[in-house]
Write a structure and sequence with these properties.
The chain is of the alpha/beta class. It has one domain: Alpha-Beta Barrel (TIM Barrel), CATH 3.20.20.100. Helix content is 43%, strand content 11%. The chain has helices at residues 3-6, 32-44, 64-75, 99-113, 131-146, 160-173, 190-193, 197-204, 232-241, 246-259, 263-273, 285-292, 301-312, and strands spanning 18-20, 49-51, 85-90, 119-122, 152-156, 177-183, 207-211, 277-278. Helix 5 (131-146) links the parallel strand 4 and strand 5. Residues 1-17 have low confidence and may be disordered. Bound molecules: NADP nicotinamide-adenine-dinucleotide phosphate.
Length: 326
């Protein structure tokens, strides 16, 4: 299934692009107006795929990301409203044990959104720690499609072996897998260079979505190894990675200057030119506007080769998601 047709995802320039809404890294409710302005700017610029998850927002903020996206979509009045596509991810929580639990979880997401989920994704595979749990959850995911409760089904953090197995299982039920979402950026090339997921996805007709395409902000060039660093775990990670990625950042900066683009735009355009759909998280209108500038043009083969080489030469890269399977 071509999700750009079936799910009305926008295809712009050399790829499709979207906005991730994870509500992490310093979110509080005073940001809601700003996030709504980000949403409006995106849709106005034909960026209409929004990714969220039922685990985004914990405690008091439980379900907040889905609630906000639903409200923003409802209140949006400009052009492109009918193209808005909301993708959520259902967590494989240990207490979700039956196929019905996935159907109920998706109905809860739809309640928070105030509309049906367009693309429902399995947030992660339980294969690495509770393989017996997964079959029923996947059955539930396919049930959602069969019951017409969603327009498309996707997976997240699956490697090629697991993906092929699930694909076969779903083919037998006539349920197409529209998308696979993995951590992919110039600092996380593993899913494509080592797992060879792009080739497998192309073979199976699945679109590859690149999450954390800016390596949580590292590839924007605004952080230096002298600091200041963001708070918490992200700061610790940045402290570790920044000294070793100087040559990669230098390549990004050089190409950005020659092209009169920003480093974020180069990093996102690289994902697009690799045939993936990057879903950068933007916290402000300025960041969103910057990221939208990654659309409508293409890095040339020389620039891509320079970036590939710089990415291959860094000694420390982003840690892979612990749930990523082979
Ligand atoms: N499937 C999964 O398991 C999974 C896991 C992670 C993420 N995701 C999805 O992927 C989405 C995006 O990933 P992410 O937020 O982890 O990482 P990301 O997109 O690589 O980085 C986002 C962060 O970079 C900074 N930023 C973004 N655009 C910028 C710009 N133009 N200039 C300067 N700074 C900029 C912002 O943080 P600061 O301003 O604080 O620097 C922003 O929060 C999430 O929202 C989520 O939907 C999925």
């Amino acid at each position: 299934m071509q999700i750009s047709q079936e799910l009305s995802l926008p295809t712009m320039g050399c790829g499709t692009w979207a906005w991730g809404n994870r509500l992490l890294w310093g979110y509080d409710e005073s940001m809601d107006d700003q996030l709504q302005a980000v949403f409006n700017l995106c849709v106005n610029n034909s960026v209409t795929l929004f990714d969220t998850g039922d685990s985004y927002g914990t405690g008091r903020l439980n379900g907040q990301s889905e609630r906000l996206l639903g409200r923003f979509a409802k209140e949006y009045l400009g052009p492109g409203k009918e193209d808005i596509c909301i993708a959520t991810k259902l967590a494989a929580y240990p207490w979700r044990l039956t196929r019905q639990s996935m159907v109920s979880a998706c109905k809860s997401s739809a309640n928070r959104l105030g509309r049906n989920v367009d693309l429902v994704q399995m947030h992660w595979s339980t294969a690495n720690y509770a393989p017996w749990q997964e079959g029923r959850l996947l059955d539930g995911l396919a049930d959602l499609y069969e019951q017409g409760l969603v327009r498309g089904v996707g997976l997240s953090n699956y490697g090629p072996k697991r993906l092929k197995r699930v694909h076969q299982k779903f083919v037998e039920r006539g349920v197409p897998i529209a998308t696979l979402q993995v951590q992919y950026s110039l600092l996380s090339t593993y899913p494509v260079t080592q797992l060879e997921l792009k080739g497998v996805c192309d073979e199976l007709g699945i679109k590859l979505i690149a999450y954390s395409p800016l390596a949580l902000g590292l590839l924007t060039g605004k952080y230096s190894d002298k600091g200041p660093f963001p708070k918490g775990i992200r700061g610790l990670l940045f402290r570790q990675l920044l000294p070793g990625i100087r040559p990669l950042l230098a390549s990004l900066r050089e190409i950005a200057q020659l092209r009169n683009k920003t480093m974020s735009q180069i990093a996102l355009n690289w994902c697009i030119c690799k045939g993936t759909i990057p879903i950068p998280g933007a916290k402000s209108v300025e960041q969103a506007r910057d990221n939208i500038g990654a659309l409508g043009w293409q890095l040339d083969s020389g620039e891509m080769a320079q970036l590939d080489q710089a990415a291959a030469s860094v000694d420390k890269v982003m840690v892979q998601n612990i749930f990523q399977t082979k």
